[in-house]
């Protein structure tokens, strides 16, 4: 499989790519400006700003001579204004240190202000056709689904592992089309919710699609501060029945609630549930994140749907469960989902 998905992705990209103004160039300066604008900002919002900016400052030299206020003015409405300051400062450094020629070494690009590993890889690949994988949230989503990676993508070690895997895929391949293909596939087909697997060029090789885990992945659980608990919360069903457990003690004593554990992923939820209730559940899909603030703590609940293969004690129909005393934290989940 490792030799196939990149070919399929590149072929699909060439046939389906979005026509974006910053794709019709391999000028590193223009690619740099577009990539900085695209940080935290949608493609649709960036296009008119990019065109106006490049029209006014077509080269590093013209930008370096500009008044900072004019750069800000052209950035007005795009947000994250520190980016405008960084590119203006960097254009001066590019003139002084690199004679106005954008550097083509990855480490030099990475050393520039406002440029992190993703942007340095994107510029190296799009402008200089070097073998660097540009791994952002979109690429992490697609690759973790294709290879069914069940690790938390919010952790650096997972990003590193996926980047290394991706770097192997692009050896001797067109890295620019591969990276941009991942972006377009994430945007057009392998969407956050409801990936369009039946239209996907990678569906024959995608392990998540094969194992029906595409709506569970990627796992993205961000670390939270000590007062905030990160929980996996389960809507556990058997046919039309839902599991609700009465709390014996603690914060919500005598109230009925969904089963939830402070664990890393829905897979560890399944193991913990099996330990406690001697029943192995099957994970069906990620539903939504919810937050509930109590006086002294916050629950960040990552809600997943699990099914049981047989009826369990404490299962209720929809009508029955709405008559039970349920704390607000779970009531809002139950009323919006069930
Ligand atoms: S088959 Fe589905 S989950 Fe897999 S990459 Fe394609 S859209 Fe994403």
From TrEMBL:
Co-factor: note: Binds 1 [4Fe-4S] cluster.
Q: Does the keyword Hydrolase apply?
A: yes
Record-listed E.C. numbers: 3.2.2.31
- Any one Pfam family match given in the protein's UniProt record, by short name: HHH
Q: Which GO terms describe its biological process?
A: base-excision repair; mismatch repair
Q: What reactions does this protein catalyze?
A: Hydrolyzes free adenine bases from 7,8-dihydro-8-oxoguanine:adenine mismatched double-stranded DNA, leaving an apurinic site
Provide the cofactor list for this protein: [4Fe-4S] cluster
Q: Which GO terms describe its molecular function?
A: 4 iron, 4 sulfur cluster binding; 8-oxo-7,8-dihydroguanine DNA N-glycosylase activity; adenine/guanine mispair binding; metal ion binding; oxidized purine DNA binding; purine-specific mismatch base pair DNA N-glycosylase activity
Claim: DNA damage is one of the keywords in the record: yes
What keywords appear on the UniProt entry?
A: 4Fe-4S, DNA damage, DNA repair, Glycosidase, Hydrolase, Iron, Iron-sulfur, Metal-binding
Protein family membership? Belongs to the Nth/MutY family.
- Tell me, in a sentence or two, what this protein's role is: Adenine glycosylase active on G-A mispairs. MutY also corrects error-prone DNA synthesis past GO lesions which are due to the oxidatively damaged form of guanine: 7,8-dihydro-8-oxoguanine (8-oxo-dGTP).
The identity of this protein, by name, is Adenine DNA glycosylase
Which species is listed as the source? Answer: Kandleria vitulina DSM 20405
């Amino acid at each position: 499989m490792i030799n196939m998905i990149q070919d399929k992705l590149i072929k699909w990209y060439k046939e389906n790519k979005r026509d974006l103004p910053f794709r019709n160039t391999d000028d590193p300066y223009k690619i740099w400006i577009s990539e900085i604008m695209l940080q935290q900002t949608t493609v649709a919002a960036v296009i008119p700003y990019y065109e106006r900016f490049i029209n006014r400052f077509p080269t590093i030299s013209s930008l370096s001579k500009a008044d900072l206020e004019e750069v800000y003015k052209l950035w007005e409405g795009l947000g994250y204004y520190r980016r405008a300051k960084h590119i203006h400062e960097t254009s001066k450094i590019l003139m002084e240190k690199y004679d106005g020629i954008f550097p083509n070494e990855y480490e030099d690009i990475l050393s520039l202000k406002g440029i992190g590993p993703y942007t340095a890889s994107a510029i190296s690949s799009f402008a200089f056709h070097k073998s660097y994988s540009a791994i952002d949230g979109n690429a992490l989503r697609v690759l973790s689904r294709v290879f069914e990676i069940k690790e938390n993508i919010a952790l650096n070690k997972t990003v590193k592992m996926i980047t290394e895997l991706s770097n192997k895929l692009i050896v001797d391949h067109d890295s620019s089309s591969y990276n941009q293909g991942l972006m377009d596939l994430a945007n057009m087909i392998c969407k956050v919710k409801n990936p369009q697997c039946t239209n996907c060029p990678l569906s024959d090789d995608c392990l998540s699609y094969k194992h029906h885990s595409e709506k569970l992945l990627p796992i993205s659980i961000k670390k939270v501060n000590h007062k905030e608990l990160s929980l996996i919360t389960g809507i556990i069903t058997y046919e039309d029945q839902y599991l609700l457990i009465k709390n014996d003690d603690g914060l919500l004593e005598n109230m009925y609630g969904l089963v939830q554990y402070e664990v890393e992923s829905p897979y560890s939820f399944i193991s913990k549930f099996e330990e406690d209730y001697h029943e192995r559940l099957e994970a069906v899909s990620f539903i939504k994140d919810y937050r509930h603030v109590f006086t002294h703590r916050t629950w960040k609940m990552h809600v997943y749907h699990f099914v049981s293969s047989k009826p369990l004690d404490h299962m209720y129909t929809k009508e029955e469960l709405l008559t039970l005393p349920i704390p607000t934290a779970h009531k809002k989940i139950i009323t919006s989902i069930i």
